Structure to design on (398 residues):
């Protein structure tokens, strides 16, 4: 016969399991990467019956972007697409000049051009060679815009179909890589031009160690800066409902944790910014840097010139797509550049640009983007994307 004590224990056990089950459901332990927030990844080629100018926008919104802020608004027209900056979607003191915001638009532009090669950026660019300034402007949609227009030269030969096909498979991989697996020749993707402006891959063990140390130092400075830490934490999204509501930001699923650690992390109470920063610093120092097979740096002439920031983003998106076609994983590690901007904002001196040039072995150029690459040990998950209707400027076509 079942004793009363056993029945109570059984009841409590069932209750605990039910509570744990609900918590697991609520926190999305079993639904990582699933649901409406991830729908965009399967609609990257557009939706049947849509107007032509809307279709490439589905590919554009899958682009890499700082902290998954998705700071873009698109206006589809009859023969043109206009891309606006949404200046309200920024990471504050972690990007005081909104350089990363414009780089994010560059990433979207790269996808847009690949998705519809018969479109081109209209030569009369409305964003001139102006320098970015410390942003106080919170206007949702910047007056500046880029116009992407259809050529009238007839059929276009698509030069890089493989890059276009990689668009829905490209994801930022923050997990461990396999540092010893031989990399293919990356000369076609990264090359330093004579004056050192463009992409450079860093394989040399000594140079890798030095750049790794610089990235860890910059991460330490980032987490020690309470404003940068708080502004970054504003984009952390936890729990299934929060992700479904916002469809943006950084989530536990995309942090590069093993499946078990990820499940445990999701079941635990939300971390405050300080605890999250501690894990971030440890992951950077103990996993991401030591397992990188190589690092890369994208240089430009002046990272705080708006066009150059956009260009650096385009360059990153195309590089990441190339790496994806080769089965390689990649992750931006831009902490040193973020600290360079922060020091510039606060009028402090900073030698990182000089140090990075020396490590990369180039004479000139302003470092605009740093990343690591290698063969991943696990697949990177997709990150959330905003509703399509929410990134369209309302007009008679949208
Ligand atoms: C300008 C820029 C800076 C970025 N910096 C970092 C970084 O320092 N560390 C990192 O892990 N990811 C970084 N990312 C990657 C974004 O967080 C990522 O693209 C975004 O969360 C969307 O995820 P997805 O690339 O997997 O689609 C950066 C991306 C861009 C465009």
């Amino acid at each position: 016969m079942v004793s009363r004590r056993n029945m109570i224990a059984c009841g409590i056990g069932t209750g605990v399991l039910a509570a744990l089950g609900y918590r697991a459901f609520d926190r999305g332990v079993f639904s990582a990467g699933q649901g409406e927030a991830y729908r965009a990844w399967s609609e990257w080629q557009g939706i049947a019956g849509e107007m032509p100018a809307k279709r490439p926008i589905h590919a554009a919104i899958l682009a890499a972007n700082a902290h998954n802020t998705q700071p873009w608004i698109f206006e589809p027209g009859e023969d043109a697409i206009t891309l606006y900056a949404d200046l309200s979607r920024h990471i504050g003191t972690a990007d005081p000049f909104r350089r990363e915001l414009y780089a994010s638009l560059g990433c979207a532009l790269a996808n847009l051009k690949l998705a519809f090669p018969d479109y081109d950026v209209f030569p009369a660019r409305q964003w001139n060679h102006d320098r970015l300034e410390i942003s106080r402007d919170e206007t949702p949609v910047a007056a500046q815009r880029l116009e992407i227009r259809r050529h009238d030269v007839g059929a276009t030969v698509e030069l890089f179909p493989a890059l276009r096909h990689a668009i829905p498979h490209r994801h930022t991989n923050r997990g461990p890589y396999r540092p010893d697996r031989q990399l293919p020749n990356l000369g076609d993707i990264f090359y330093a031009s004579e004056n050192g402006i463009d992409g450079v891959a860093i394989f040399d063990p000594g140079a890798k160690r030095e750049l790794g140390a610089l990235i860890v130092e910059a991460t330490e400075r980032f987490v020690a800066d309470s404003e940068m830490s708080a502004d970054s934490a504003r984009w952390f999204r936890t729990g299934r409902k929060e992700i479904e509501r916002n469809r943006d930001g950084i989530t536990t699923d995309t942090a590069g944790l093993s499946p078990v650690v990820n499940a445990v992390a999701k079941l635990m109470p939300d971390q405050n910014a300080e605890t999250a920063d501690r894990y971030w610093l440890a992951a950077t120092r103990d996993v991401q840097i030591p397992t990188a097979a190589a690092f890369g740096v994208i240089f430009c002439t002046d990272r705080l010139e708006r066009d150059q920031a956009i260009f650096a983003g385009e360059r990153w998106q195309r590089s990441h797509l190339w790496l994806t076609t080769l089965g390689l994983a990649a992750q931006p590690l831009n902490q040193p550049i973020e600290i360079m901007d922060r020091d510039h904002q606060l009028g402090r001196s900073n030698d990182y640009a000089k140090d990075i040039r020396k490590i990369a072995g180039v004479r000139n150029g302003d470092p605009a983007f740093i990343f690591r690459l290698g063969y991943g040990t696990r697949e990177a998950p997709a990150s959330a994307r905003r509703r399509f209707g929410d990134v369209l400027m309302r007009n008679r076509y949208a």
